[in-house]
Protein 1
Amino acid sequence: MIDRTIIEAENAARQADLTADYDALGARLARRGLDIEALTARAMSFGVAVPSWGTGTGGTRFARFPGGGEPASITDKLDDCGVIHALTAATPRVSLHIPWDKADPALLREKAEEVGLGFDAMNSNTFQDQPDQGRSYKYGSLSHTDAATRRQAVEHNLECIEIGRAIGSRALTVWIGDGSNFPGQTSLSRQFDRYLDSMKAIYAGLPDDWRIFSEHKIYEPAFYSTVVQDWGTSLMTAQELGPKAQCLVDLGHHAPNVNIEMIVARLIRAGKLGGFHFNDSKYGDDDLDSGTVEPFRLFLVWNELVELEDAPGLDLAHMIDQSHNVTDPIESLIVSAVEIQRAYVQASLVDRAALAGFQAENDALMAAATLRAAFRTDVDPILQTARLRAGAAIDPVAAYRASGWRARVAARRPQAAGGGGGIV
Amino acid sequence: MIDRTIIEAENAARQADLTADYDALGARLARRGLDIEALTARAMSFGVAVPSWGTGTGGTRFARFPGGGEPASITDKLDDCGVIHALTAATPRVSLHIPWDKADPALLREKAEEVGLGFDAMNSNTFQDQPDQGRSYKYGSLSHTDAATRRQAVEHNLECIEIGRAIGSRALTVWIGDGSNFPGQTSLSRQFDRYLDSMKAIYAGLPDDWRIFSEHKIYEPAFYSTVVQDWGTSLMTAQELGPKAQCLVDLGHHAPNVNIEMIVARLIRAGKLGGFHFNDSKYGDDDLDSGTVEPFRLFLVWNELVELEDAPGLDLAHMIDQSHNVTDPIESLIVSAVEIQRAYVQASLVDRAALAGFQAENDALMAAATLRAAFRTDVDPILQTARLRAGAAIDPVAAYRASGWRARVAARRPQAAGGGGGIV
Amino acid sequence: MIDRTIIEAENAARQADLTADYDALGARLARRGLDIEALTARAMSFGVAVPSWGTGTGGTRFARFPGGGEPASITDKLDDCGVIHALTAATPRVSLHIPWDKADPALLREKAEEVGLGFDAMNSNTFQDQPDQGRSYKYGSLSHTDAATRRQAVEHNLECIEIGRAIGSRALTVWIGDGSNFPGQTSLSRQFDRYLDSMKAIYAGLPDDWRIFSEHKIYEPAFYSTVVQDWGTSLMTAQELGPKAQCLVDLGHHAPNVNIEMIVARLIRAGKLGGFHFNDSKYGDDDLDSGTVEPFRLFLVWNELVELEDAPGLDLAHMIDQSHNVTDPIESLIVSAVEIQRAYVQASLVDRAALAGFQAENDALMAAATLRAAFRTDVDPILQTARLRAGAAIDPVAAYRASGWRARVAARRPQAAGGGGGIV
Amino acid sequence: MIDRTIIEAENAARQADLTADYDALGARLARRGLDIEALTARAMSFGVAVPSWGTGTGGTRFARFPGGGEPASITDKLDDCGVIHALTAATPRVSLHIPWDKADPALLREKAEEVGLGFDAMNSNTFQDQPDQGRSYKYGSLSHTDAATRRQAVEHNLECIEIGRAIGSRALTVWIGDGSNFPGQTSLSRQFDRYLDSMKAIYAGLPDDWRIFSEHKIYEPAFYSTVVQDWGTSLMTAQELGPKAQCLVDLGHHAPNVNIEMIVARLIRAGKLGGFHFNDSKYGDDDLDSGTVEPFRLFLVWNELVELEDAPGLDLAHMIDQSHNVTDPIESLIVSAVEIQRAYVQASLVDRAALAGFQAENDALMAAATLRAAFRTDVDPILQTARLRAGAAIDPVAAYRASGWRARVAARRPQAAGGGGGIV
């Protein structure tokens, strides 16, 4: 793992400046009636799960260009996740993907404990065929026209629950690529009926203290219709299944221009918001690093979450879900965790009393200015202090680079093969 | 009204060709196992409501360019609507907009009867301020922060119901422009709460045999958030109100790329599809003539409606909702009614048994080809025969032009003023 | 005008805090090798033109809700523009729109001088019909099928040049709404040919020291095709006209997801970027206040402008072009000018040497982080100091409200009528 | 290859019906002043190239699900392409992709001759790394920051030209995935400069009778910026290179809502339209079968091509470019070729004199109706007759299935492996 003396040396070089910045920010916030210590405490309480698969280099259907030292096993992935949490103190849990991460649960628990991590929601995979698989998902899984294929997909999800129980997870996220590429290829209504039937079978196998998350996506890998295409269909699904079913919002899974923060507010009102997959995007499901393309959008999502944080029963599962194609995945996950945490802290310093007053008076200009004032506050000193106090790095990317981790693991992990994605 | 001898003369000139075309099509359909007479009967059973306001020239925020003979009153509008139905036999009802069409109900009933029309859903208007209005809707109506403004908007809707009862309508369509232009301007959650409270007050005043339609729209006139922004929110509204509340789908009110036919299928499954506002569009809520920009999309919507036409309790209110900026509005409404009817008939000749078989076998190519085969069948002879048999015009636009209607009314109606839309 | 003692009193109350903030920021920037004084000087050199029409409340095709004290004449508008510049020191010029602002040039010059303003680009209007106009623009203007209508539109543009010469303007911006609403309505190719012919006739009348700006827009008011639909067509136009012709980029005039900063870079390379219309948007040409919806996008545009600011011959005309529907227009213009200036200053503190280094090494993560570090720097102290030193207000909205300007002019200007936009 | 007796038997079973349909359509067209024989001759003159790689099953970044009998070599691919042409008589040429199709040119020529095909444009590949490649394209190819990498990419393109010369090709299509995933990752301007330099080096190696096609794409595989992002940049490229450089339009490579037929018209006016990559899409670059999602859009593109077919120097290279994920690729290519041909014939029966008249009079309704009348004409009898007369199949998919081709090659070709696309 990362040598703590490196983190400490890196921090030592930055601490005086940080103190000055923290004090100046504290004074400025105090003038606005805000206690910087309370904000730092909120920052320290923040955590977002890291996806095990995010530690490998991702790709597109055109190509994948792996770097050196790619993780070759779930053990390697957990090592990398441990590095991220050691440096950020913001990613205490890992989310597994089955069958990619299938392993002896006891070993998983042991390894996670070793690197200081817990397990978040389990993720099933019925959008790819595995070598040993009886029936193909080429034409769908939970919504397939063939009952035996649906049953196979249901059983895979039940197995994910079993593995999850053994390692201390408490939720299952279901995302399927089922849909169609051509008008007419499937019956839009009957395909949804079949999907609901399969989901009910999975729901029936859900332990009492578990939740199941339904994740919507407008398109890809299906290009004409997708069974769970939007939050409306996801809501219908969660309503039909029962109280343990909730909706998961992936920021990149919407039509162009859609106001995602409204969806957040609506799902909270419906009592059905379960959590998030964080990432950023400009065009489609680009799976870019969180907060790198539209940081204000990320802030606006958090603004809803903070405004409604006392909604009855709200218990959100936050996860990063990104594809790291041109960066060191560890660095992208570090940056993303920090950017998500940043938006949370920025949203936490909105002057909600003033905002509510401006809203009540329809003073649109000042209401909007109140939000923007929070967004443009540079809360880096808060985030840095939170990390410092938690024993992590003031500048986690610098510390990571200083640690030489990537070169170290590149020396002992096999070189991954690139390849052509979905194109021959 | 239109002189029947003109229609008859126009029809006489086309009848021989029509007979030949009808016979040729009949033979071709027979080979596919389809009875042309049954399809013609379906075409004759079709009806779509015309919006009273659609008979005037519309405009954009930049300008409005009225033509000659614009209707100056609801009486004029009903005359124009009567012309459309006389020529198409496809638009038996008119949908009124209050306060634009406010008049003595007895006179409305009498005039409608005179021109051979009934009344469809009532439409309320809380997106504009009227001269005599106590409170402004600048910052919202049913969701306004001010209780008195909400009450005013509720009462306006109750008045629409009263007028509707007096003229034989059985439904109220509620569309509001409420929302916000800037992040922070309103609380997305509290604004929706206020909207639901207002809608419940209207619902409480709904007669037992009435329905209330909730209409969603992604944006415009509000440009950052809209209270009922999508079908998910519309569904939540209808669910919260009760069994008499349903969702209305306007084809132009969605984000780019959204698969509207899926929404249709979902709302039918939820038992909450109430009806449609038909139009076409390329960019936003363009309100173009139905079937002129993406005719295949219109067909795919109808394909769902025909596939699911036996869904329990399905009772749809179909209306045209367009803005006619560069055409004679009567002509645009004629063309639109025919195009909607065309899509209905095309969807009716889909070989559903073959389609279901291809879908069951995942023969995507043949399933898609089956739909396309129906779409590309030129059903003009069926539509023309349906009109001929109903006493309408084989070529309704030609007959309309031959009738000289527009010149006639231009001589007796005042010239409308143009103007600059929302721009000074 | 605004009483200077009010500005001074408002500034006095904020000056101590500003000094502290400015010093803290200066120290922090110095650590990054940046001189806060140089940045303040850049801020003070910044200017963006205000559109005369922006001082009135705008609207949509659904409605317009004017406030109190709307300007009733170009004199009133210039007064309002003078207020904005007095408070921000960032809007030294006004852009006129003919015929809305037609008046005796000598009086225009005199009034502008009185309120401390100059004149920016002239704007012609051939998207509305004026009462005294011979031919209608319902079916187009510079690209109309009728030669006499095209001639009328050309002559109107030539008249705009004449007025502009008399008041010291040096540029003409041409934006037309010409296009079509239906496939087939116009010949896409011949309509463009006619447009180019008309533009050449205008170009022939352009003084040697003038420029003509071609402004593209994807849609609205035309909904199927628009003659100058994108920057490619605008570039072809500018290339065909000659060296005095350049392209103007309105931030809201693009298809969803389009990368506007790339267009900026391309047009600069082609030697054809003439200037900007600033605003913000979420869905279409929403004309919202600059920097309120996607502030990072505004920053990225400025990042290109700063990176390429030494491109040969680059001489940009910056203007705000917004519709203020729910705010006091003066306040929206103040906020917008400040947000545009903010993005300029943020882009000015990008560490370009470091950025170029990361780019050269394909260190995508650090390159992106370098841009974000500039963006999230809160440069308010710089902007406030720039205003203070220029005799304007540290907090211009607060000073404006303290001045009571709106109430004062509401008492002497007539109440504007609202209305229904493009809808009857 | 396909046994001709099967085609003949299949045709024999359909010939009587076809004769009846052809005669009925001929009579109907004659009434509209159209000669069906001339249209059939046009259909017979039509040809579109097939991409060699299109004969294999494609995939997404999530997965690829190959079918049986996938082509394992360029010989297999040419066999499959030969089958398509034998059945449709509409795909006389194949477009190769290097290095996927690299082989001895003499053998390529011989094999192509054997299956009755010629060679269309060559396609280079610098968006994937090949096993033996010196430098990686992870961070770009022709626009890479590293000169040696750019040189390698240039040389690969020059090699494609060499291979093309040896097999009788006359054009090179250049599409690169270069761009960036994050704001700041690259200098948008310098990256384009480097691209242009590389393209000039390729252009310098272009034989006199060759053309080079620049293909734009808004995004993917790069997700923030793409060097040749739209037709404007493609046009600048072609202008800078010289007369042998032209622009290639792939129908799926545009932002949502973009009017592609306008781009076609503009590029023709600029003398820079080189050809097309045909496919269809609903969301992004979905690469679906041509004419299956928005058939009217395909028609409108062809409407421009037919309207402007006499433009000086117009010489278009038509190719299909699709990914066949859920169908037999041969069947998808058959259907696509037929749909493209269909749109061409439909566009050919537009009454252009009537259309021009309506356009001149601004009779928007009748102009639009004129286009739609052509589109909804079912020209199947023309296409079927064209195939019959050329010795191909009236119903090519039925004949293909009857031939048992897929089962036959599945028995002799190795089973392809599926896989996980760009995702681990």
Protein 2
Amino acid sequence: MRKLLVCLVALLLHGAVVTAAELRGTGDLGIVIERAAGSVQIVETTHRVALGRVEGLGDLSHASAVFSRDGRYAYVFGRDGGLTKVDLLERRIANRVVQAGNSIGGAISDDGSLVAVANYEPGGVKVFDAETLTPVADIPSVTLADGKRAKVVGLEDSGHRRFAFSLYEAGQTWLADLADPAHPKVERFENVGKLPYDALVTPDGRFYIAGLFGEDGLALIDLWHPEKGATHILEGYDKGEEPLPVYKMPHLEGWAEAGDLLFLPAIGRHELLVVERRDWQEVGRIPVHGQPVFAEARPDGRQVWVNFAHPDNDVVQVIDVPTLRVVDTLRPGKAVLHLEFTPRGEQVWISARDSDEVVVYDTETRTVMTRINAAKPSGIFFTARANRIGL
Amino acid sequence: MRKLLVCLVALLLHGAVVTAAELRGTGDLGIVIERAAGSVQIVETTHRVALGRVEGLGDLSHASAVFSRDGRYAYVFGRDGGLTKVDLLERRIANRVVQAGNSIGGAISDDGSLVAVANYEPGGVKVFDAETLTPVADIPSVTLADGKRAKVVGLEDSGHRRFAFSLYEAGQTWLADLADPAHPKVERFENVGKLPYDALVTPDGRFYIAGLFGEDGLALIDLWHPEKGATHILEGYDKGEEPLPVYKMPHLEGWAEAGDLLFLPAIGRHELLVVERRDWQEVGRIPVHGQPVFAEARPDGRQVWVNFAHPDNDVVQVIDVPTLRVVDTLRPGKAVLHLEFTPRGEQVWISARDSDEVVVYDTETRTVMTRINAAKPSGIFFTARANRIGL
């Protein structure tokens, strides 16, 4: 009898260890950044629930994340230079390094082997082995006369173990080829424009576009033809108009591509610029509720959802792409910071920081499917990002 | 002592059960159809290995598969009407129904809740609960004067729990809305053209295009504007030319969309047709090695890889999209039946049936990364398909 009890206890203990990491697919998982608490919630989009919380990720203001190609691990980039590898299945920190003093996001290579981080302080890009977080490359952004390093912004995967990024004070964009991480090949594009502050790569990985804070217009590089160098597009889109004060810089990675059109937040204006991708000409402007922060296309490209900077950050607007008109104005909650679509677009998840909620909408009916409690939620990231180019 | 042994045995047994289903992400998994053996191999693209085999799936000639939105389960559609739900983690059959006498593929709804199967015999579409494989809807394709059912082909997900499919003998395309599976709403497009034999939905879910075996040209339906009805495109692309005998019908789901261009296998010709998506006009033809079967775009749209019908089925050609020229001719093995890109396009997996191998290429260098033994492999399907619209 006692023997059986011992076995039972042993089995229960063993079982407990096992069930702590549930056997399940990872394709419908994601994380919600809880910026104030330094934690992430692990969420699941099939039943639209939170599965658990992982704590101890440091300063997560302006945090972002990428995913391992198997969807099991999230790499979370913290503002304090922390790079944390989170195991979504065991719901724990698998590994963590503090790799710089001040960071602004990162990317993962197309083969999933390299994680790159963009740093403000000290300025540069550090590259890590995705498996172990061992440093494999360091690319200091030394360009200024006094040997100082420029802040690195707009770091994006550009395919084939390459990363593209921009140097804020230096007005340069660099393309780093890490086919051999021990010897990174760096191609420099100088004078791309004044103060590039963020960038995007189009979903096909072809075009790198940097927003310029120091001048009107944007810098464009065709990554299929880098020999052509950087060109300017949308020059002077603000000419002769008095810009409004900028409370928050738009996020360019959020720029929406829908069919042949890109939808760009106009800095300091209550408008989205509509750009024809084939010739990069502005083909229209859409007046919106406030200063856009994220303009995200539903994966089918038929709708673009937009959130706004303070003081209009309780509103999300929905734009119908065929007619280029605002068709809905929603109020999900207080201080909407981010939105993320499920990969086929039937749901959108919206973080309302000051309501301590993530609000999930059906994108067809635009009705609320559920609300999930979260502590001051900001960024929302789903594992399907592992399959996408240019993030 | 004996007590300890008993415990040890108990634990080992328990441990064995657990390790049979390895805790892992599912984002880099896929299946390879082994048509002759009625089995599938479960493969993993990060280390490029086969993980195990699942048997007992029946007649898998012309089999295809879709995936649950969490990436854990594959739904395999067999030619014998079998619908098999395969658990990729436990590597076993989770469920199986023989739902018709003769089938030709299927689709899964955008919310992952419904699996639909296209049937030849008896003609129609059956819809199942993705969780349990319980039948939830039956849409017989009765259209012929004598009450006979037409064969159903080209069944595709068209978003929002809707499926589009075509009726071969009847020359019709139907759009079935299963928002309420108990009461499917079916919209019929009559006289779309003679003998639609397969179809595709563009990656954004907007356009349904059916190939016509009974006449030159293709039928196009804008799913954003179904009220406009079906129109014809590329009419008479073969006019005045003597078509070659057709050994194998091209697979339209394989039609490649790269940027604004579609690449279509020309039936009975050694050419790919290049079509401008904006106005559906033919803008070029690319002479190729044989009669194309699959023309697949690398996810970045910069390359299109093509395989061919007998007797040219030992060759795969690579087309450079910017120049519309064949830039490489590869010989992966004997009887190449299918090819599948990893979601970010750094690898392509190619099945060489008569070599009993799956050959994995690096798409940049076009060198062989590895070869994996498989018994008469045909279709290759990766879990990233769960995230894609229009399959």
